[in-house]
């Protein structure tokens, strides 16, 4: 079966599903709306190119689609855990043969995207998708679960302490290099930012989170070093170059390129409030990251005129964005925003 034939088959089958089913509408939209090729590709790869061979047969016959594609897509989008579990229990009740391996694949996917239980010394902060999937696998299939758990572990390599230290040290060197390029504000600034962005978007989600942390820390500690570009500029954390680092580096090159819907939700809701148990994580489906990148009801655009701070605040720019040598979009909002200024 060719890819176009596969997509035509899927479209015809989706049309036959009950249209009053909210979940079905969400998945229908996720799979076939223009601009969502990444998710469509994901499902296609699971159906025809993945190993083991059971993945070749994603759908049952007689126009009765299995729930495999729905489970994988809901897990991918970090949907509400109870919604995902209900879908899994439905597949289990139907005795769908794919379910054990689907749970394994979905768990691996969730771990790679950082969708795992968050906890501290006080206990659990919020439950992760991977943990819920593994628990259901262990509950439904206790006899074969250990084998799949071992596959999950082997599919998600764990660094040793030396590898972790080397990676984090390299990350720090790169962030410092980008900050220095913006501080210098010369003809090489644009190339430094672009090179950083191209590299950062290809790293793992976990590494991207570390880069965001380091970039925020760099700004907090060195923001006062950023010069004014003219007499009207505020300089420092609130000046044009501060905007460029916040929006252009943290917002555009890091946060906007996050490939994890779950981590996007954490930034939107405010990491500070979540980790301090002031606010619960609200899982929701944002199929194309549109709400994350361009919050509804605003003229904000992530990476152009705002970025997310640790409070989930959408921080707009304070400076005019004039005479900046790096790639930059002039902020339209002039009110001074909360920045990572340690003096504030």
In short:
Helices cover 53% and strands 4% of the residues. With 344 residues, the protein is mainly α. A hairpin with a 5-residue loop joins β3 and β4.
Radius of gyration: 22 Å
The major beta sheet can be summarized as: 2 strands, antiparallel
Instruction: List segments where confidence is low: pLDDT < 50 over at least 5 consecutive residues.
Output: 13-64, 318-344
| Proportion of helical residues | 40-55%
Write down the overall mean pLDDT.
77
Number of helices: 15
Number of strands: 4
Strand content: under 5%
What structural category arises from helix and sheet content? mainly alpha
Count of domain modules: 2
Choose one word for the global shape: elongated
Strand order of the largest sheet: 1-2
Could you state the order of secondary-structure elements as H and E?
Answer: HHHHHHEEHHHHHHHHHEE
Description:
With 344 residues, the chain is mainly alpha-helical. It has two domains: 3-155, no CATH class; 161-316, no CATH class. It contains 15 helices and four strands. It has helices spanning 3-15, 22-32, 37-48, 68-76, 81-93, 99-112, 129-140, 145-155, 161-184, 189-200, 205-222, 240-255, 261-269, 271-275, 290-293; strands at 118-120, 123-126, 306-308, 314-316. The strands form two sheets. It has a two-stranded antiparallel sheet with strand order 1-2. Strand 1 and strand 2 form a beta hairpin. Helix 9 (161-184) runs antiparallel to helix 12 (240-255). The chain is elongated and about 70 Å long.
């Amino acid at each position: 079966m060719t890819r176009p034939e596969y997509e035509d088959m899927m479209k015809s089958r989706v049309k036959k599903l009950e249209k009053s089913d909210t979940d079905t509408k969400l998945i229908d939209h996720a799979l076939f709306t223009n601009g969502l090729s990444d998710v469509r590709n994901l499902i296609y790869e699971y159906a025809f190119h993945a190993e083991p061979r059971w993945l070749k047969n994603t759908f049952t016959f007689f126009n009765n689609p299995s729930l495999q594609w729905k489970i994988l897509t809901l897990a991918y989008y970090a949907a509400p855990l109870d919604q995902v579990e209900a879908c899994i229990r439905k597949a289990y009740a139907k005795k769908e043969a794919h379910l054990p391996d689907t749970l394994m694949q979905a768990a691996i996917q969730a771990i790679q995207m950082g969708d795992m239980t968050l906890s501290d010394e006080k206990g659990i902060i919020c439950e992760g998708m991977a943990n819920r999937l593994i628990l259901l696998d262990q509950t439904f299939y206790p006899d074969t679960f250990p084998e799949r758990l071992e596959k999950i572990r082997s599919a998600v390599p764990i660094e040793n302490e030396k590898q972790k230290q080397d990676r984090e040290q390299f990350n720090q060197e790169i962030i410092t290099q980008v900050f220095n390029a913006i501080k210098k504000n010369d003809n090489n600034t644009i190339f430094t930012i672009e090179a950083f962005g191209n590299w950062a978007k290809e790293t793992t989600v976990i590494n991207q989170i570390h880069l965001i942390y380091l970039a925020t820390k760099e700004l907090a500690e060195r923001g006062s070093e950023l010069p004014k570009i003219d007499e009207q500029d505020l300089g420092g954390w609130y000046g044009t170059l501060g905007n460029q680092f916040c929006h252009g580096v943290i917002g555009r090159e890091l946060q906007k390129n996050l490939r994890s819907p779950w981590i996007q939700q954490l930034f939107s809701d405010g990491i500070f409030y979540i980790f301090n148990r002031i606010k619960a994580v609200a899982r929701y489906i944002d199929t194309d990251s549109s709400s994350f990148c361009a919050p509804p009801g605003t003229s904000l655009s992530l990476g152009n005129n705002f970025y997310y701070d640790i409070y989930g605040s959408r921080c707009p720019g304070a400076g005019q964005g004039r005479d900046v040598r790096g790639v930059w979009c002039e902020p339209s909002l002039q009110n001074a925003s909360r920045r990572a200024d340690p003096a504030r």
